[in-house]
Each structure stands twice: as C-alpha cells, then as structure tokens.
Amino acid sequence: MSAVRNLQKIQQKNRSMICLGLDLDPKKMPSEFTNSAKGLFDFAHRIIDATADLVCCYKPNMAFYESLGPDGLSLLKVIRDRIPEEIPVIMDGKRGDIGNTAQYYAESMFDRYRADWVTLSPYMGYDSLRPFLEYKEKGVFVLCLTSNSGSRDFQLLDVGGKPLYMAVAEKVLYWNKDQNCGLVVGATHPDQLREIRDAAGDMPLLIPGVGAQGGSLEEAALHGSDNFKKPAVINVSRSVLYASNDKDFALRARQELEKLNAQVAQLRAKALQDSQPTPRPVAHESVVGSAPEPTEAESSPDSYPPQNNG
Predict the structure, then answer these.
(1) N or C, fewer C-beta in 10 Å, the chain?
(2) 13 catalytically annotated
(3) Which of 94, 171, 229, 270 is catalytic?
(4) How confident is the model at residue 284 (pLDDT cuts 50, 70, 90)?
(5) Above pLDDT 90, what percent of the chain?
(6) What is the pTM of this model?
C-alpha cells in the first residue's frame, strides 16, 4: 500500500487529521521522567498508549534524540517500535545533501528507523531527493513554506515572477511520479497555504505551526484540505505533549487531541453542509420515482472524502 493511501486509511479509521509531534524536551515534562533514556521512553510510551486512536500519525523530530547521543538514537528506535504498525511515522530530520550522502540518509531513515515518511529540504535539487523517492512505498514531505519567522528570508523571494515557495510546489508536483510526495506548509501563512493547496494537486500537505506557534486550526484545516476535498495533516506538539506537567500528562494530552478532533469534525460538517446544493422546489405534487438515498460519504459529516489511488 502506498504511503499516501496508508495515511488516508488511518485518517478515516481514527477520524483525525492530527499528527502528534514526539519532541521530547526534558525541561517541559514531569521531573520523574527526565533522568534517563528509560524515563524518556516511559513518558513517550504513555503518551502513545493514550493517543494512538486519536491521531493519523506521529512525528518525532530527530534533533531531540540526536542531541542525546547514542542513547538518544536507541531511544528513537524503541519509541518507533512502540507505535502501532498501522499508524504512519514521519521522521522529521529535514535532510538534503548530494546524492551519495542522501542515499545513506535514506537508508538510515527508511531501513534503520523504519520511517513511513521523512521531511526533506529541496535546496540542493532533485538529486538530493532522488534516493528517498526511489523508496516508492514510502513518502517525503518537502519543505515549501515553513512556519518560522525566518521563512521570509528566502522562501518569499521573487523567482522569475513567482515566490520561491511556489516554484518549489510546482517542482515537487512534477517530481511526484510515484505519488509519494507532499509539501510542508506552515499554518502561520494562511493565505499562502490556500495558494499552495491549489498548486499542489492531490499531494498531501503537512501543516505545522498550529498551537504554540500561533497558527489557526480552522484555517489550517480548511485551506490545507481545500474544504476537506484533498489530503492534509495538521501537526501539533508542545500544546498537546506538555498540556500538563503532572501525573495526569497522558490523560491531558488525550483530552487536548479530543478537543482538536471535535473542532475539525465541526468544520468538516459545516463544509459538507455548505457544499450541498440548495433544494429546488417541487413543481408538482405527483412525482414519479424517488430520489436516491445519499451515500455514506455524503451523509456522514465525519467522513474523510480525500482519496487517491497512489
């Protein structure tokens, strides 16, 4: 099964477009979990066990693990193994280097750490991405317009009459021969998010920046999915992972995800209602035949219509 189809499948099952970032910061978690790699694992696995039915994927940012040295990399592997197999894992390392080096990065991410998706930088061009794209059943999210304030330094520059981020979106769409590409677009740029969604075809968008960075969940969900017609993943991390610094941290994380999913469900229901045609008045009392029953996808406000066969 392709990476995109697998992502859509779990979104439908869990009724969620939320990705939870597993960015383990000892300064923000209860102190009893901060003194060893085992403590960090205990924290992470309690979070995973409490939230696995409420998310569409998990996203460990590799910097949090690499900073701990060999113990951190071992921790990353055991956390990956703790995540249920049906839930996609995005390894967030933002890799991008020349072809030979990229090949080893790809092997590391996909083979050693068993990533389903990775994040990549497009700055060095196609040959730096090709080793990842050759894993056709895996997926890549390519940085397009990021959520940080420094994104304007380069990503908004004019390139031949269009902003650089649009040139990236169009190029990645061209590279998407095997339907295994997506784009990273920050929720802190809602107008550009809508523009990129229009240019991205059916590629999924990974949308960080909701929560602690100030992006709007409503705008991310609606603009990023074209009113729930195309695939999108909204990433949250600190606002959920560290909703509590006490013993109830896993429960509070679950409650925060339940709130986010409920908000998205309301937005989806309204988008579905608004998309329905206005009923025309019946011209005669006697009507031959009857209207067909609506399909499940048409009648259920919780359905996830975005599908592709990639």
Answers:
(1) N
(2) no
(3) 94
(4) low
(5) 85
(6) 0.89
Q: Identify the pLDDT of residue 195.
A: 97
Contact 133, 175 (CB under 8 A): yes
Q: How far is it, in rounded angstroms, from Cα 101 to Cα 76? A: 21
- Beta-strand (E) ranges in the chain? 18-21, 57-59, 90-95, 117-120, 139-145, 158-159, 162-163, 181-185, 205-207, 232-236
Residue among 9, 20, 1, 58 at smallest CA distance from 231: 9
Distance (Å, rounded) from C-alpha 88 to C-alpha 14? 12
282 part of a folded domain:
no
Provide the residue count of the chain: 310
- Tokens of residue 80, six digits: 């990956």
CA distance 150 to 153: 6
Q: Does residue 305 fall inside a structural domain?
A: no
Confidence check: pLDDT of 299 > 70: no
CA dihedral 98, 100, 101, 103 (to 10 degrees): 110
Q: What is the CATH number of the domain that holds 41?
A: 3.20.20.70
Domain with 112 in it: 3-273+290-299
Instruction: Express each pLDDT in 219-264 by its tens digit.
Output: 999 999 999 999 999 999 999 999 999 999 999 999 999 999 999 9
Residue at token pair 């986010």: 260
* Count of structural domains within the chain: 1
